[in-house]
Amino acid sequence: MSRLKLGMVGGGQGAFIGGVHRIAARIDGKWDLVAGALSSNPERAAASAVELGIAPDRSYGSYEEMALAEAARTDGIDAVAIVTPNHVHAGPAIAFLNAGIHVICDKPLAATPEQAEAIRAAVAASDARFFLTHNYTGYPLMRQARAMVARGDLGKLRVIQAEYAQDWLAEETSNKQADWRTDPAQSGAGAIGDIGTHAYNLLSFVSGLRTEALMADLQSFVDGRRVDDNAHIMLRMQGGARGMLWASQVAVGNENSLKLRIYGDKGGLEWAQENPNVMTLTRFGEPKQLITRGGAGLGEGAAGGTRIPPGHPEGYLEGFANLYSDAADVIAGRGEATHLPGIEAGLDGMWFISACQQSSSANGAWVSR
Amino acid sequence: MSRLKLGMVGGGQGAFIGGVHRIAARIDGKWDLVAGALSSNPERAAASAVELGIAPDRSYGSYEEMALAEAARTDGIDAVAIVTPNHVHAGPAIAFLNAGIHVICDKPLAATPEQAEAIRAAVAASDARFFLTHNYTGYPLMRQARAMVARGDLGKLRVIQAEYAQDWLAEETSNKQADWRTDPAQSGAGAIGDIGTHAYNLLSFVSGLRTEALMADLQSFVDGRRVDDNAHIMLRMQGGARGMLWASQVAVGNENSLKLRIYGDKGGLEWAQENPNVMTLTRFGEPKQLITRGGAGLGEGAAGGTRIPPGHPEGYLEGFANLYSDAADVIAGRGEATHLPGIEAGLDGMWFISACQQSSSANGAWVSR
Amino acid sequence: MSRLKLGMVGGGQGAFIGGVHRIAARIDGKWDLVAGALSSNPERAAASAVELGIAPDRSYGSYEEMALAEAARTDGIDAVAIVTPNHVHAGPAIAFLNAGIHVICDKPLAATPEQAEAIRAAVAASDARFFLTHNYTGYPLMRQARAMVARGDLGKLRVIQAEYAQDWLAEETSNKQADWRTDPAQSGAGAIGDIGTHAYNLLSFVSGLRTEALMADLQSFVDGRRVDDNAHIMLRMQGGARGMLWASQVAVGNENSLKLRIYGDKGGLEWAQENPNVMTLTRFGEPKQLITRGGAGLGEGAAGGTRIPPGHPEGYLEGFANLYSDAADVIAGRGEATHLPGIEAGLDGMWFISACQQSSSANGAWVSR
Amino acid sequence: MSRLKLGMVGGGQGAFIGGVHRIAARIDGKWDLVAGALSSNPERAAASAVELGIAPDRSYGSYEEMALAEAARTDGIDAVAIVTPNHVHAGPAIAFLNAGIHVICDKPLAATPEQAEAIRAAVAASDARFFLTHNYTGYPLMRQARAMVARGDLGKLRVIQAEYAQDWLAEETSNKQADWRTDPAQSGAGAIGDIGTHAYNLLSFVSGLRTEALMADLQSFVDGRRVDDNAHIMLRMQGGARGMLWASQVAVGNENSLKLRIYGDKGGLEWAQENPNVMTLTRFGEPKQLITRGGAGLGEGAAGGTRIPPGHPEGYLEGFANLYSDAADVIAGRGEATHLPGIEAGLDGMWFISACQQSSSANGAWVSR
């Protein structure tokens, strides 16, 4: 099995999520990183390329140049990972899609609806695939939960409780990660974009339900903060299910507390990302069960994304790696993108962000699609 | 220390909460149950009195009769516990208050605002005390949490997450407990009244903050159900704090999952009723701490309501007993009602119920006081 | 249902376990405390009696006097609770047994084998019943576990892991509780007697297996301590099962960490006293289940000792109360002592203590019965 | 930073631990797998090499051939990973050490003391390094625990409780993994070798204490099993600390339940591998703290092995990867083997195995070094 060739836009020295993408791409040995436009700063780009073992002639000064050059090479990259701040997703995504190169893009899709729409159009016009790294869908138990819901283990869904709480922005903070995330021009939104979209994507992924309307009460608790840092959201979903979603970056004591709970008329599922190898399932009237990654009674979906026996924990990086592994299989013609979030998930996330902002501005009025 | 004399209205054979009140009253040995109007059914009332060791001449056919007779006795009861369905709180409460007998009343205060107002007026006109058994405030760690918030351990409060989830009404159910709780004429409300008021009272008790406005999305998921069985609620609180509250009786896998999480600009507290002897405290930037009932670093409030060493769990009944113990002390002139919910908490709960219903009827509009 | 009359030896002001017995006796309303020899100090005895509402003429200066006087009264006590230090169990136990009064005695049975033997003889010679308060057997889930093992849910038992860890004696400590427990003349042993016997009793109760041999490595970590404060013990049980037992009073961070895990060829059970309302059950090859007190799938034994719905935690005092409730039923002729530890359990505990001491003195040689 | 070149002995199709080593080697991008003697079956070796992208001329028929050929190449491998059953560790280890190639060997060191001694001699005679993959030492919190113990956070150590429980061999089982592990000729021991050595190594690593004597009670519960499948062990350690160690492959409901608890006169630490991103620390008299991987208050050791922010769980593979990452750094001259188990740990593990077998054969007599 020969490896696919990966390029990267962003992710140079000092960046965070680029390194995560690189580990995720390496874990299953299906990708080699061979090209990059790693920084808008030329010196940092070059130095970063050396560190990562990228040949100097494939370390580019801009993504535009990179897209053209790589498309022209016979050994050009198969896909590019875009790991820049939100407002620099659309530019490279469109450039690579236009060049016929598959795109693996960090979330949320973009910083503005206009940018999102431009990406959508480019996807529609290109033969290349577009993947969005809503990586929490890569956790085996979340795939298992989706399969359980789909086959009716919970019955008709009624209630969804989703939350993603952190505390790293509880005070005024300045560093590379905080700065762009709290600048509306670069991020487009605060907690709702950075982590709220993950919770929203995950509940949509697992439930299989479309959200028809939402209302939101957004807050900026830290003085001078220009984006939301806490968000209370209610959801009305297809088929009558209702949900609550809480996203916060000021909830002291929470590191990355992403939790999902789903209840139907026959059963309930509960899962927390911080200990992702276990999930509880209750069939109404029976004792609660602990479903473990790789343990007894799991289905195909979960088994596919599991590398080691149950009791040996896999974590965030392995879940992320499942997206890279699956994307490689899709590109190489070895599999279908059953579990992979793409442009539709990205556009849905953009609707979520703008609906939250619109509702909160209107004192919490319901916003329908 | 001689014991106080307790009477009871309701709580005959087949009832639930009456038995809980009796255990709570017995635990600390400060009360003797000596009189009762235990059932509107005369045979059941008499049989129940025999079981409970109440002398036949103090087993009454009606609460009206009981109030008059006990007030006339030189050895009459010191207080009465009212453990009837919600719509039968006002009648006995007013009768005993008018008779100068202290009242310990189950929650919520009443089934209608009119009944609540009548109780309020009776309390105002009487020298007798009125206590409402929002029993979760009796948990030592909830009293500890309240003290920690009050002394500023969490800083300025920002976010409150409260929930009370059960699943016993996930299907259509008929039994003595379910029947009156799902009959709007007897209960006045569904999940919001039966358990939502507990969550609301607890967050108010611990935070010390008044809720200024709320919005609610109420559902009745079970076909034919005439009251809400799931409720999504947002809160805007005094001083800018915001909250979410979820109450459900259809969340499969939840037995009595009452949880409270409070976050301020300096710290966060998290507690769950199902394992009530531990609470987490995080001071921003420090490791999370496990605060145990009776363990290291506790204050007066918690210590006062604790009977046995940490690690030996106390539970629901002991928390409930703290209310009876404190009420005895207040009545006997040995203490102040620092921790005891009374008429104000009851009226606030009634506002909560009616605001939820009003908001939900208005498609989730905010309802202010 | 008229209440039984209880007397108490020990348990005056400053004592600990006496208060626990009194609460346990009150919870279910089956006992009235009417007599006592509460302290060997006459003033403390009298003051304690007043506090507890015991009539002055039934507050005795010695247990000998009390046994004679109560036996002579037509309204004499039905049973006596003995809550003195270990070396003062035999005296009162024998006195009351000889007087035909039922005995509820704290554990361990005695401070020396000779005392234990004397109690045994008195029990054999008396028509009165003898109960030993190994209170952890009163937890509903431990009764449920015993029933599950007995009906074969775990198959043939193989391995038992039991532990009881505390830290309150991690340093040199002097107070009423510590002083007698660390004085070999009063206690007869350290951690193995005070808490090790509880763990040993519980594993015997749940497994239904007799221990045939044990070996022990006892330590006294605190300088100058004259009894063991940490004990490592291995067990060989009837039918080939093997066990380990750890008892410690110096394990920093443990409050009352009593844990029991039992494994057979078909299944495994795990339980921890600090959150006693849940137990896990795994049938080999199936997902782990959470069995809750009062929850789905429980049997008779557990149901009998449960007062409130699952999710509302019961704790240590309720478990203790189950022993008092059952003892009342046995004495009143309403039930059998199916679950109640008696003289046999007491003698087995004494064997455990002496075998541990003998083995440890012999550098860990196996000691058989 | 150019990558080091890795070879592998064993780990062909159908193997388990070889795949784990490969992922661990890939995660941090410091190794390329370029050569292998992947199977003793030539066809399987060749097919496995193709799958792994190893060039045909570097897929060898035997480890002897591979060691010679790779040593002769100018681009020969820097290190070899030995992932064969225990009885095939010594052969390749010695061959590569003799050829001057660094060795990364799976544990335990060997199947017999004679094999272990031969490896020891080869290590002593070679300039090449020898690393043993006791991978649990790679968990950041175990490194943190070691640092905390070393700097005295727990005071003088008293008690260690270690356990490693599984259930996959609870019944008679036949598959590639089970077969060699339960064949004494290939494995040398059962649970004590396969997982007991891990627990023993981990407690030694964290405590920094040498075990001076042990006693063991080994069982083979499954009919016909020729190695131990459950082991109860007591330890006497340097400086007076005492320990218990339980290893089991028949404890139904345990997947990979490796737990370590260490208590000193000032504090206690508790950790469980199945949720490895959190550890509790109690300083005597203070509330228990939750120490998280990457969270507040961590030291250098833990920080060094952490890739992503706290709350995003890292797992077994990342811990394993820390060993590969550190080994690369040592080989490349970028770091010291501070945390890396080597020949000494391997020999200590062999002592542990043989002492357990010797003690158990002697009815649990203490075996000193």
List the helices and strands and how they pair.
The structure is a homotetramer of 369-residue chains.
Chain A: E1 4-9, H1 17-27, E2 31-37, H2 42-52, H3 63-72, E3 79-82, H4 90-98, E4 102-105, H5 113-125, E5 130-132, H6 140-150, E6 157-165, H7 176-181, H8 184-187, H9 191-207, E7 211-219, E8 230-237, E9 242-248, E10 257-264, E11 267-272, E12 278-283, E13 288-292, H10 300-304, H11 316-331, H12 343-361, E14 367-368
Helix pairs in contact in A: 1-11, 3-4, 4-5, 5-12, 6-9, 9-12
Describe this structure in words.
The structure is a homotetramer of 369-residue chains. In chain A, strand 3 (79-82), helix 4 (90-98) and strand 4 form a beta-alpha-beta unit. In chain A, the strands form 2 sheets. A 9-stranded mixed β-sheet of chain A has the order 13-12-11-10-6-9-8-7-14. Chain A is globular, with a radius of gyration of 20 Å. In chain A, helix 4 (90-98) runs parallel beside helix 5, helix 5 runs antiparallel to helix 12 (343-361) and helix 6 crosses helix 9 (191-207). Chain A has helices at residues 17-27, 42-52, 63-72, 90-98, 113-125, 140-150, 176-181, 184-187, 191-207, 300-304, 316-331, 343-361; strands at 4-9, 31-37, 79-82, 102-105, 130-132, 157-165, 211-219, 230-237, 242-248, 257-264, 267-272, 278-283, 288-292, 367-368. The longest helix of chain A is centred in the last third of the chain and has 19 residues, at 343-361. Helices cover 36% and strands 23% of the residues of chain A. Chain A is built from 12 helices and 14 strands. Chain A folds into 2 domains: 4-132, NAD(P)-binding Rossmann-like Domain (Rossmann fold, 3-Layer(aba) Sandwich); 140-308 and 342-361, Dihydrodipicolinate Reductase, domain 2, CATH 3.30.360.10. The relative contact order of chain A is 0.15. Chain A has 369 residues and is of the alpha/beta class. Chains in contact: A-B, A-C, A-D, B-C, B-D, C-D.
